Amino acid sequence: MATFTQRVYGAVIVKSLDSNFNADFTHSPRTLPDGTVYATDKALKYTVRDYIRKYSPSEKLMYVQREGKDFKPLTLEQSYGLLFPEQKKESDETKHRLAVLTNLLSCIDIRLFGATFAIKGANTSIHGPVQVNHGINRFPANEIYSEQIKAPFASEAGADMTTIGSQTNLREGHYVFHITVNPKNIEEIAKAATHDGISTDDITKLKEALTRGVTALDSSRKIGSENEALLWVTLKADSTKHLPNFTELISVKIDTEKSEKRVIHCERIAEVLARVSAEIDSIELHYNPTTTSVVGLTGLTVKAFDIVSGQAM
Fold first, then answer.
1. What are the extents of the domains in the chain?
2. Which pLDDT belongs to residue 280?
3. Which residues lie below 8 Å from residue 193, measured CB to CB, with a gap of 6+?
4. pTM reported for the whole predicted model
5. Which is more confident, 95 or 4?
6. Please, are residues 265 and 255 in contact by the beta-carbon 8 Å criterion?
7. Higher-confidence residue: 124 or 225?
């Protein structure tokens, strides 16, 4: 399988309407001190793992929750043992660590995102090629509301009323996650394990998950959150350029002429990309033209894809 060797800079945009894409421990959308709604990188990575688990079942995933026969969550060591029951403890510590490392690199989520793996006799840290920043709501409004809900059951036997609860949603948000891919992050450790590292097939599955994973998750609290856009800028193999964070260079606004559409503004990103155009191999843009417009990328060669059908536009 071909090794992926090029660096990538990009942005993933998640639209959330009357939804709660990434709740805090009070079950409210997460907010920064100034009230701006955000989501952690873990929330997006969860959707990638969940999508791969569902649609590429032959792939091994290390960092997913598993339960034992008692329905209690497994420890890291127990989960590793379930994935790799054939591995035995090597008497030589170096050989044992190498065997563990080889097993870990057979897991696609570790090849993508890396890992901090801490079990006795095999502690290791893998710097993942794919790095994801926190997603910031780049829509002007941060309107959060709560509503009461009624359960069909009493909280205890003999109670006069059923339980009353509440749920909290974000009226509308557009989370922008900055994403980078640097295969060099994993080169040395993959070489030590006689592994090719991240493959072109891994990248294909990653891009598919980044354009479908949130929409496919569709849980009771996340329904209304969906993949809105993916901007994917691949640099040439010999490029040494490093690009700034895309999150603050993107904004999402309402189309004043067509209020049903949202407009993703990429003018500032285009300014940056124009200055390094000789270093760029390709630019891909995935979005839904029915609900969304993307402006500001004129003057650049962009391959556009319909995020719903996957077809080129």
1. 8-306
2. 98
3. 98, 101, 102, 105
4. 0.93
5. 4
6. no
7. 225
pLDDT tens per residue, range 183-197: 999 999 999 888 989
Going by C-alpha positions, the residue among 16, 17, 27 that lies closest to residue 168 is 27
**Sign of the C-alpha dihedral, residues 78, 84, 85, 86?**
negative
* Residue 156: pLDDT band with limits 50, 70, 90: confident
158-183 burial by CB neighbour count: b if 16+ within 10 A, else e? eeeeeeeeeebbbebbbbbbbbbbbb
Burial of 130 (0-12, 13-18, 19+ CB in 10 A): buried
Is the pLDDT reported for residue 86 higher than 90?
no
Distance CA 3, CA 200 (A): 6
Q: Which residue has the higher pLDDT, 87 or 119?
A: 119
The Cα 118–Cα 152 span in angstroms is 44
Q: Do 50 and 114 meet the contact criterion of CB atoms below 8 Å apart?
A: no
Please determine, for residue 234, whether its predicted confidence score (pLDDT) is greater than 70.
yes
Residue identified by tokens 């294909």 is 204
Q: Please enumerate in sequence order all residues whose Cβ is within 8 A of that of 28, keeping only pairs 6 or more positions apart, or say none.
A: 20, 144, 146, 168
Output the six-digit token pair for 147.
């509503």
